[in-house]
Design brief:
alpha+beta, Jelly Rolls, 2 domains, twelve-stranded antiparallel beta sheet
């Protein structure tokens, strides 16, 4: 079939740089208009669907969880699906249970969006310890229950020892070795917050592990022990372990001998403050 030579041909039959640019503008404009129309239709249909059987779920549901997060499960029509989960329950994470207490944590492993903060919930029975340890993140803690005794060593070798009761706070800077002990009558439970989203309680530096990798003669010289005494040290990590409930803070301080105490206070007694 012969074409009419006078007929104007569409631009895609004889492409040129000018025609290509013109065609691109048309395509982009058409796509934008189509997108706006599609979005409007989606929002409208979503509103309609939420009021008919389209959103029904005849199968099993966790109604308690849905009631706490209605907009996550069935978002409003204006939602574009860009909001990632912003919370995660400690009760959904693995609880590490040791003789003397337990711990579980929420970090980027289970909540990838939490890049700047991680949380740990820990319980220590009366007398039990969280082993002396240190880490590269700052630690902020809020005591939920009972009373804890905290011991901290500053880089200059001075010590801080204090008791923290429910409603009060402690703050330990990164790199400062510290331990925690549950007190009578029923130990303690607390929430720990760290300024590293990837922080994990399983990745802290433990004093028992440090000792395990340090020559016994070095330990004996630094700790004032007989070389044979070093053989009595733990062969592995302790992490959380039971112990006897201590006496007063002053009694613990007296057992340090002439060790100087830190002039800094790492406890903030928020519970004793009048609400404003």
């Amino acid at each position: 079939m012969n074409d009419d030579p006078t007929r104007e041909r569409p631009i895609w039959e004889h492409p040129s740089r000018r025609n290509f640019l013109g065609m691109g503008s048309v395509v982009l404009a058409t796509a934008a208009i189509t997108g706006l129309s599609a979005n409007a239709q989606t929002a409208q249909s979503t509103r309609k669907a939420e009021h008919d059987k389209s959103s029904s779920d005849p199968g099993p549901e966790n109604k308690s969880l849905l009631a706490e997060n209605p907009d996550s499960n069935t978002p409003p029509a204006t939602d574009h699906g860009d909001l990632v989960p912003i919370w995660y329950s400690f009760d959904l994470t693995k609880k590490r249970v040791e003789e003397g207490g337990w711990t579980h944590e929420v970090n980027t492993t289970v909540l990838p969006s939490s890049r700047d903060i991680a949380g740990v919930n820990m319980r220590l029975t009366a007398g039990s310890y969280r082993e002396l340890h240190w880490h590269t993140a700052d630690e902020w803690a809020y005591v939920l229950y009972g009373t804890a005794r905290v011991t901290l060593m500053q880089p200059d070798g001075t010590l801080f020892i204090g008791d923290v009761s429910a409603g009060n706070i402690w703050l330990f800077p990164a790199g400062f070795p510290h331990s925690i002990q549950g007190l009578d009558p029923d130990g303690t439970e607390f929430l720990l917050v760290f300024n590293q989203g990837s922080f994990s309680e399983d990745g802290t530096f433990l004093i028992s592990e440090w000792m395990k990798h340090t020559p016994h003669d070095v330990l004996a010289k630094n700790l004032g022990l007989e070389p044979s005494d070093a053989n009595l040290l733990p062969k592995g990590s302790l992490y959380i372990f039971p112990g006897a409930a201590p006496g007063s803070v002053q009694a613990d301080i007296s057992q340090t001998g002439a060790k100087p105490m830190s002039p800094s206070n790492y406890i903030f007694e928020a519970a004793s403050m009048t609400p404003t």
